[in-house]
Amino acid sequence: MIDLYTWITPNGLKVSIALEEFGLSYRSHAIDITKGDQFRPDFLAINPGGKIPVIIDDETGITLAESGAILLYLAEKTGRFLPRQGAARHHTIEWLMWQMGGFGPTLGHAPYFLTYNSGQAPFAEDLFRKDTHRLYETLNARLEGRAYLVDDYSIADMAVWPWVSRFQRHKVDLNAFPHVKQWYLRLAARP
Ligand SMILES: N[C@@H](CCC(=O)N[C@@H](CS)C(=O)NCC(=O)O)C(=O)O
């Protein structure tokens, strides 16, 4: 059994999606980050950084934070959604890292300037608007002529999708990125 400590944010949703897709048994524990649950001593004991998501797998005894590391762990545990070898494995990790290092952090910060405090920091707003559009353009170019980020549906798609689901907060019109929109709706239709 896996215990999942999480909240309804893109990094949290990645792991919820993965656990459902992998068909693993798990229990969810809500860590309400809007109320400061992430700073409770019992949560800091499992992740001193005070960030969701975290899993504890009682089969292996491992406690793991960082959504990208959790997705890799679950893929290796089950042997699914990450090719075992070859170029497709490296490209899946490449797109997972693209999400973890660029798409996620940039889109995580962008709404503070573009949505919640627009007009207050013009330089930051301009920077995040340009970077956001550049990242969506990169994703759109990657998805042209492809059903998924790599050959088959993988942990890379699971990592990117919950971030795209917040496109309105990024002030992005998905119609301007038609390949992203088709991919977004295709994945949304999964059970
Ligand atoms: N790199 C981490 C980021 C985790 C993260 O930023 N979690 C946010 C929610 S999406 C959080 O717990 N925020 C609470 C806080 O910063 O106090 C991951 O991918 O798991």
Individual helix count: 7
Radius of gyration: 17 Å
Which regions are unreliable across 5 or more consecutive residues at pLDDT < 50?
A: none
CATH topology type of the largest domain: Glutathione S-transferase Yfyf (Class Pi), Chain A, domain 2
List the helices and strands and how they pair.
Elements: E1 2-6, H1 10-22, E2 26-30, H2 41-44, E3 54-57, E4 62-65, H3 67-78, H4 86-114, H5 122-143, H6 155-164, H7 178-188
Parallel strand pairs: 1-2
Antiparallel strand pairs: 1-3, 3-4
Helix pairs in contact: 1-3, 1-6, 4-5, 4-6, 5-7
Verbal overview:
The chain has 191 residues and is α+β, with helices and mostly antiparallel strands. It folds into two domains: 77 residues, 3-Layer(aba) Sandwich (Glutaredoxin), CATH 3.40.30.10; 103 residues, Glutathione S-transferase Yfyf (Class Pi), Chain A, domain 2, CATH 1.20.1050.10. Strands 2-1-3-4 form a four-stranded mixed beta sheet, covered by helices on one side. Strand 1, helix 1 and strand 2 form a beta-alpha-beta unit. Helix 4 runs antiparallel to helix 5 and helix 4 runs parallel beside helix 6. The longest helix has 29 residues. The two termini are 22 Å apart. The model has no long low-confidence stretch (mean pLDDT 97). Bound molecules: glutathione (GSH). The site of glutathione has 13 residues, from helix 1 and helix 3.
